[in-house]
Every structure is written in C-alpha cells, then in structure tokens.
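Subject: SGNH hydrolase-type esterase domain structure
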Amino acid sequence: ADILLRGYFGWNSRWALQVLDEMFSKDAPVQPNLVIVYFGGNDSMGPHSSGLGPHVPLPEYVGNMRKITIHLKVPFLYLMGASFVREIISQNMAVILCSCKVFSELVRTNELCKRYSEACIELCQELGVKVVDPYTAIQERDDGKTACFTDGIHLSSKGSKIVVAEILKVLKEAEWEPSLHWKSMPTEFGEDSPYDLVAYDGKKTLNPSEWTYHRQIQWD
C-alpha cells in the first residue's frame, strides 16, 4: 500500500475546508482507498479575545466535519484528539512566554478537548463513519499523562503506538470489502522468482512474500 501523510502545523477544520477540493479532487484519476482525518485538537483551543487564532466554535466544528464527511466518498476514519496534560502545557508555555514573547496565551484543556471529541463521535455514529478514539485509550492508562506526551500536547513514541493500535483495531473489525487490515491485503508481486533466496538444497528459490514466522510482528 502507498501511504501519503499530510500534516500542517496549527491547522483547524475551518482551514481544511478551504483546500478540501484541491487535496481530494473528485476528478482525480486515482482515488484513495482509505482516508484518516484528524481535526479537533486546535479547533478545541479556547477562544482568543481578539477573535484570531485556531479556535473554532463547537457547532461550526461539527458542521465542518460533516462537510468533510460528505465530500469524502471512500471509507475513512476519524482520528479523535487524544488529550492534554494541563500541568505540562502550563510549564512549557510559562517558559516560552518568559523567554521569548512570541505567543499570546494559549488555552488548552482536557475538558474542551473532550467536548469536541464527544461531538465528533456522535457525528460519526449518525453518519455511519468509523472513529478512532485514542482520547479514551490514553485516559485509561495509569501512565497516560506522563508517558504518552512529549510536551503535554504532542504524542510520544508510546502515545503514538497506542494510536496505531487503535487504528488497526478499527481496520480489523471493519466489514469493508476488500478489507484494509494489513494481514488481509494481497501481496504485490508475490509470484515465485529466480531472484528469491536460494533453498537449502540449492536447486530452487524460496518465495518469502507470505512469510511472517522469521521476524517478530509488532502489530496484530
């Protein structure tokens, strides 16, 4: 499978709508088999008194996600915001604000994030869209606040592994045809070849395209 990753610093659902047709053109000769969408972390920031900034009011956020859903005709998942660790964020922002006057006050709380996550989950249930909810998975861990984030906002290696596990769980359980779980996907160029590794008898080669026993498989 070819996987295309796109991440834009500080974007929200309002900004995404402006480029949706460009990024996912309905006339494109090749259409994706799966799209994973994540917006909500920046939308759920508290509003700034100036009216500027990434905050998007909750009703507008839900409307934006509905428009994205309608535009994307292929199977896709909504990746919900994880959570925030207010204490770590406050410490980091205090250092930034004191050392270099770049940002105005940033308001990120678990309470706001939870409201947006719950609203998007409700929308997904209404529209029959699969949803990945790392917010709950991380909150259930005893070390969620300390081990799953690098700065109170962005995921650490452990936090990212939790997200991947939740994505694979949804892909495995989804009743899509064809299945998009990695164990169910056909092997490309899996035919026998004289260029494969030579067998012990020295007379033939061994096709390794379906092998899994020779290495540890991290993801089920």
